[in-house]
Amino acid sequence: MPCRELTYTARKDWAEIANWLEQRKDPDTKVDGIVRDILADVKKRGDEAIAEYTRKFDCKDFVAGMIRVPVEAIHAALKEIPSTDTAILKEAIERIRTFHDNQKEKSWWTTAEDGTILGQMVRPIDRVGLYVPGGQGGETPLISSLIMNAVPAQVAGVPSMAVTSPPRSDGTLNPYILATAALLELDEVYLAGSAWAIAALAYGTKTIAPCDMLAGPGNIFVATAKSQLIGHVGIDMVAGPSEIVILADKSANPTWLAADMLSQAEHDPLAASLLVTPDNKLAAAVKEELATQCAALPRGEIAAKSLEDWGAVITVPDLATGTELINLLAAEHLELAVDDPWALLGNIRHAGAIFMGHNSPEPVGDYFAGPNHVLPTLRTVRFSSALSVQNFCKKSSVIATSPGYVAEHGDKIARLARLEGLEAHARSIEYRNK
Prior knowledge:
There is one protein chain. By secondary structure, this protein is of the alpha/beta class. The chain has helices spanning about 15-20, 30-45, 45-55, 70-75, 85-100, 145-155, 175-185, 195-205, 220-230, 255-265, 280-295, 300-310, 320-330, 340-345, 360-365, 405-420, 425-430; strands at about 5, 110, 115-125, 125-130, 160-165, 190, 215, 235, 245-250, 270-275, 310-315, 330-335, 350-355, 395-400. It has a six-stranded parallel sheet with strand order 1-11-10-9-12-13, with helices on both faces. A five-stranded parallel sheet has the order 6-5-4-7-8, sandwiched between helices. It has a three-stranded antiparallel sheet with strand order 2-3-14, with no helix packed on it. A hairpin with a 5-residue loop joins strand 2 and strand 3 (about 115-125). It starts with a strand and ends with a helix.
């Protein structure tokens, strides 16, 4: 398996690794203009533009009247999937909801002796649009994306949500997406994909009411559309290709490590899978396992390309040096496949999600454990966090100062205003003290 072999001994070695990984960020500037035109077209023509793009790329017989999925069809989809799968989906939703329930924030207030009240009021966003990629022709539905985006919004108390996903070639949506929407009690599902779906959610059309915030993963057209709409609507994040970094010692199982690296490599040719270890024997064994396992994967060609371009086994002198590198890599997913992961946890500063020990592989977080799998990529975990309930809330400061407060502090406030050359600000205070 062609996979880079690198060495990191100290900070001086970081530049070479950083320069290599930086190339994953190269933007496809050709997409910017295409997306800008799509956004403008949907803003102008609404449903007709959506129908036209959908006929061109997804379903040749699509018409505007097909955009909204009937509520009855959403609920009927529960009968189209096995009851065992329904039970799994219900349990996953429950676990994810339980985790996010702990993220709720409360409004708070402080009072002073002079009667002044200061505080912060937490309110959910009014309406959110959720984008769900259709997968390969609609046959690999990204149901986990729907769950991970809808649940924190619901926990936040968002009262109105719209889901969009591209239709299959026959004009239908995969029943698993519809069944998941039914289990989440979502009744607004629309057939629209790519940048035109994002435009519809942001600007609104005759069929789709506009949203205040957009969330959900997608291809470069979706990501570019979201980034171009920043300021008009809120977005969750502009995520890049997936990535995993594993810090492993001699106690790790090379078969498991290779499987975990491939779990990201199969996503996308741009996905990055890195192993960091002080054990040369383990490094060699993992490379052998990568070759064996990759050859047996249905998406082996994608995984092989990912490993060839963005996979690496990086040897370090010890776990302390490995931890230093981990913080520089600042990965979306981090596995601590070591004998005592808790001893290292306090030294980890930058990681989107941290998987502890040999029995916490990354897919448990993707689907079932509870934490959100929507995570910052491309080293942005240095300043950002996983999708959470907070993303779907906004906070208003509340200021109720008393006459005594203005009398006591008015001169100071006016002085600060005049230092900035804002005379009207100063007089606004002083009129009250006359």
